[in-house]
Every structure is written in structure tokens, then in C-alpha cells.
Design a protein that fits this description.
Number of domains: 2
GO molecular function, one term: maltose binding
Strand content: 5-15%
Low-confidence stretches: 1-29
Family: Belongs to the bacterial solute-binding protein 1 family.
CATH topology of the largest domain: D-Maltodextrin-Binding Protein, domain 2
Number of helices: 17
Structural class: alpha/beta
Keywords: Signal, Transport
Number of strands: 14
Helix content: 40-55%
Protein name: Sugar ABC transporter substrate-binding protein
Length: about 450
């Protein structure tokens, strides 16, 4: 694809540029240090959003406490591309707050500094799972954890009650509910204009794979089998094939997915749910404030996704890290900001109460009491999902190529109802094997 080729060219430029920024192991090559130098902070949030305001509040509180000036830049669309362009121009920000899944790519590109975990003040208060998400495939730590999250089903409870079905406790229940939402006019307008699922099925940023991962695991499928730090592809296993078959059926047999899903990013899928076009949406807690405002808190419920045929529920665990970028003139300030962000004060500011400005979804600081900061008990649902069934993506050196390849395959399968699932997943399995070898972690 043209996008992939363009990204490859940019990475080549970036790799060359990063050699001028960092030395082996991600350490700085000798930028003159100034402990009072302003810190440029980038965060992947929409400009002008409540989350941007919270990020600025966090930075302002840090500046008030330390005297170190800060500037926050909120970017959302093409965030990683813009970061790569900044690296190529040797204009990296000092700090980046971004997804845990980006760690491997940032490490490979040499854009982040290694973190001395033992030297981070307050680091001993962070959950072990959060620290694991800051660890590279080489076992070294390359970020400071900031936020955690998992995902749940958002279901139109008013629609569910109208069609007379219970809260789903199995995939069969879930599909029956989606079919009823599609065929039984749950909004009562006399038109066939409602659907079951809202699905962000675009290949951009690997969204199809990102959405499907929890269901793949719940069916007993997987991307890899891992042993001793080595990986073998598992995406063409019978369990994985069965999970994809279930997913495809929603598009091609039940036709219970809202139209346009194969090109939808998350920002386009959110309105599908909140405007009453679909009644089931698997998403994160960050949408509750928005949906409460635009749809109404009394019209939907938040429940864990049921276990699949594999018999064990699983939910993708994610979060955001504070990345200390290479080449900073204020490494001491970088560390101080990360320490402030994980402190009780920093985490509480980031949580933003029950508003839609949260940049800390679930606190990574174990001393912060979620219930005392947020009175909305729905947050407890996500906290329980994260703790009981949350699972991070495989700790390969770089996850992005696998996520993108699987997204493109899954997207192609559901977009073409004549597609051969086994054949497509076998090809993806081979692609995975080649990439694992390229990354030096293929099982022999």
C-alpha cells in the first residue's frame, strides 16, 4: 500500500536522523544540560478537547511545584507521523504521553531514553502490570507508566429492554441482541435504520486488529505462542479461524454491523453509537462523559464482554506512558515531570473526576483510591475488567508491524464476503513468521 511504502521511507529518514540524537541503548549523546530549560510536552489528544485542558492543568501544576516551564501540544491525527517528522528535523519534544503499544517502535527508532526504574521517585507505588507495559523486549525499561485502561461493551439498555432480551452473557446472546437491534426497530421510528454493532474497522493505525484482539483471545485464539522470549505464529490456529469466522458472520450473514465500518476510525465510530445508528459498542471508559452528554446516561449500560467459545473472557489492556525523549536539554526536568505525573497529585489531576477530560483512565499509582476520586461506579467495571481479565499485547520488539498486517487481513476478510478465512490467515501466519525472524525472536 502507498501508505505503508511512505511510512517505510519516513522510517529510513528517521533512523538516519536519530543516529544524531542518541547513542546505543537510547542514552543521550551529550546535549548541553539546563535544569531550568522549558519542557515541550506532546500528548495524543484532540486539540481543543477537555483532555487537552487536563493535560495543561497537569503541566501547570508541575510548573507551579518545580518552577520548570512547560508547553503542552495536543495532537491527534497522524500523531506518530508528526513525531517522526519532528525527529527527522531534530526537533523532538522533551516528553511524549502516548500509547503503551508504541513503545517498541519508539525504542527501535532510538527516540526514547532508557529509564532507571529504581531511580524514579514513587516508582515503587506503581502496579507491576503498569511497569511491565513500560518494558521493552530486551527487558529494559523505556518509559514511566502513566495511565491504564481496558474495554467493555456499551449497550443501549433502552433498546435492549424494548426488544425484551437480557444482558448478554455469551457470544450467542450478544449476536442475538445485535440481530434484534438490526431487525426489530428498537428506536420505534418505523424505519429500518438501526444496527447492532458499531465497529471501527479501518486499517489506519491497525484499528481492525485493535478492536478484534479481545474477541480473538476470548475465543482461545492468539497472535503467537510464546516460550522463553521466542514466538511462533498462532493466527491460523483453529481457534483463531473460528474467532474470525464469528466476526465475519456479523458483516456477511447477520448484517448486524453499521454500514461503513470497514473505513471507520474510532472518531467516526463514536457518533454511530451516540446518534442511535448502532446499539452495541466495544470501547473504553474515555467515552462515558461524551455519551452521557450526547446520548444520555440513562440510555446505555456498561458491561464486561462475555467469554467466547474459548471459555475465558479476555480484554485488551492498554494505557499510556510518559516517554522521555532523546536529545533533551533538560533530562532532570524530564524525570521530574514523570515523577510528578505518577504522584498522587498528578494522577488525581489526570483523572479529572467524573468529567470527560480524563487523561488518566485507571490510575497506575496503587495508593490512589479510584472510588474516592470518581463517584461514577461504572469506572469500577473497567477497573475490575483490567484487573481480572486485562491482557497487554505481546511483548515482541515491535508490535506495530503485526498489528498493521493483521488489521489489513481482517479488514479484507470482512469487506469481501467471498473471502477464504483459512487461506487469508495462513498467509498472515507466514507474514508473522517472516517478521518474527526479522525481529530476531522467532521460535526455532
Amino acid at each position: 500500500m502507498a501508505h505503508t511504502r511512505g511510512a517505510a521511507r519516513l522510517v529510513a529518514i528517521l533512523t538516519a536522523a536519530s543516529m544524531g540524537l542518541v547513542a546505543c541503548g537510547g542514552s543521550d549523546t551529550g546535549a548541553e544540560q539546563d535544569a531550568k530549560a522549558p519542557l515541550q510536552i506532546w500528548i495524543r489528544k484532540p486539540p481543543g478537547s477537555p483532555t487537552e485542558k487536563t493535560a495543561k492543568d497537569l503541566a501547570a501544576a508541575f510548573t507551579s511545584a518545580t518552577g520548570v516551564p512547560t508547553t503542552v501540544t495536543a495532537l491527534f491525527d497522524d500523531f506518530e507521523t508528526k513525531l517522526q517528522q519532528a525527529a527527522a528535523q531534530k526537533q523532538l519534544p522533551d516528553l511524549v504521553i502516548n500509547d503503551t503499544a508504541q513503545l517498541g517502535t519508539l525504542v527501535k527508532q532510538g527516540l526514547v531514553r532508557e529509564v532507571d526504574k529504581a531511580g524514579v521517585a514513587g516508582g515503587d507505588q506503581l502496579t507491576p502490570a503498569a511497569w511491565e507495559a513500560a518494558k521493552g523486549a530486551d527487558g529494559k525499561t523505556y518509559a514511566v507508566p502513566f495511565s491504564a485502561q481496558s474495554f467493555a461493551l456499551f449497550i443501549r439498555s433502552d433498546w435492549r429492554q424494548k426488544v425484551g432480551l437480557p444482558t448478554p452473557t455469551s457470544w450467542a446472546d450478544l449476536d442475538a441482541l445485535a440481530t434484534a437491534f438490526t431487525t426489530k426497530d428498537p428506536d420505534g421510528n418505523g424505519k429500518a435504520d438501526t444496527f447492532g454493532y458499531a465497529v471501527p474497522g479501518s486499517t489506519k493505525r491497525g484499528y481492525t486488529s485493535w478492536y478484534f484482539t479481545s474477541f480473538l483471545w476470548s475465543a482461545g485464539g492468539d497472535y503467537f505462542n510464546e516460550s522463553g522470549g521466542k514466538f511462533a505464529p498462532a493466527i491460523a490456529s483453529p481457534q483463531s479461524v473460528a474467532a474470525v469466522d464469528w466476526f465475519k458472520k456479523q458483516f456477511c450473514v447477520d448484517k448486524s454491523v453499521a454500514p461503513g465500518a470497514v473505513t471507520m476510525e474510532t472518531t467516526q465510530a463514536h457518533p454511530v453509537f451516540e446518534t442511535g445508528k448502532a446499539g452495541i459498542y466495544f470501547t473504553g471508559p474515555y467515552n462515558m462523559g461524551r455519551f452521557d452528554k450526547n446520548l444520555g446516561k440513562d440510555k446505555y449500560e456498561v458491561v464486561p464482554a462475555p467469554a467466547g467459545p474459548g471459555g475465558k473472557a479476555a480484554a485488551l489492556a492498554e494505557g499510556e506512558n510518559v516517554y522521555l525523549m532523546a536529545g533533551s536539554k533538560n533530562e532532570a526536568g524530564q524525570k521530574k515531570f514523570a515523577e510528578f505525573a505518577i504522584s498522587g497529585q498528578g494522577q488525581t489531576i489526570g483523572m479529572a473526576g467524573d468529567t470527560d477530560g480524563s487523561i488518566v483512565r485507571l490510575p497506575v499509582n496503587s495508593t490512589v483510591d479510584l472510588a474516592s476520586v470518581r463517584k461514577d461506579t461504572r469506572w469500577q467495571v473497567f477497573d475490575k475488567i483490567y484487573k481480572d481479565t486485562g491482557r497487554y499485547t505481546p511483548n515482541v520488539p515491535e508490535w506495530t508491524p503485526f498489528r498493521q498486517a493483521s488489521a489489513e487481513t481482517l479488514n479484507a476478510i470482512v469487506a469481501n464476503c467471498a473471502s477464504d478465512i483459512q487461506a487469508e490467515l495462513t498467509k498472515l501466519d507466514e507474514t508473522f513468521g517472516e517478521e518474527l525472524s526479522k525481529q530476531g525472536v522467532a521460535a526455532s
